[in-house]
Amino acid sequence: MKKIILLSIIVISFASCKDVVFNKIAGEAQGTTYHIVYNKDKVIKTEVDSILNEIDLSVSNYNPKAILYRINNNEQDLTLDHHFITVFNKAVEISEASDGLFDITVGPLVQLYGFGSEKKGNINDSVVDSLLQFVGYKKVSIVGNKLVKENDGIKIDMNALAQGYSVDYVADFFERLGIANYMIEIGGEVVCKGHNEFGDEWRIGIEKPIEDSDIQDRQVELIVGFKDEKKALATSGNYRRFFIEDGVKYTHTINPKTGHPAKDSLVSVTIMADDCMTADGYATACLVSGLEKAMDIVEKNDKIEAFFIYFDYKGNYKFIITPGFKKYIIE
What we know:
By secondary structure, the chain is of the alpha+beta class.
């Protein structure tokens, strides 16, 4: 073993086999990092960076030039591109599947709690209640190629889908280039296809949910392996992004119905799917929904598999692994 990249998803890579040409590229994009391995005798970092910048100009909450940023600032008559429309439609699908517990209009609450681009606000019940009028996925729609909002106070947050979508879009680019074997990871969201440098399965480690751990402390909970078929993984957890104020813990996972951070025994969700945007979005939806509802969401969708980490009523550390997920576990 040569290298372990420590993330919510941990990519375990190996030295290249001399008979197969593999390239590795890495960089920063969309407020995070990426690591990509692929079997082509050409460095395509410039092309990948261009793709990620193109997506950033569509669905970023932070880039003032992005369509989403400008929509949130109520610029009028903006034309949506295919990136925005694709991500929006997936958001609606997951909102429907989760009875509205996944909701991209949660933006005002994300900002209030300081998990967005703005400083944390004054958190109290009256402020939360005042913002809930702007939350609800049915309050936004696409008409033609325009986004229609019921109220200018509505702010959209696509962070739960954007990185997964970016992984998929880079994978589509690789497919067009005829690249058969690759691993693409952006911000901990991963898609793999084919085999690694040794001709073996891609090995992806899922992180133990150790609260507030830094990169040196992160540990692998289990390892899954993929070979030949294309598979995606995404993890969402409430053990890293949080703050404590007046003895109360506030996590970044906001329940759009209550306006408060979700509170449940579920601490980590890893979703497996054929595409990374689906895995990314459903991981967030399940974490917000809580263990019981999350299990129901997964059981009703034959396109996803799940690995749940939770604490039982006695405080014991527990797993629930769906059969389709379990068959890929190698350690």
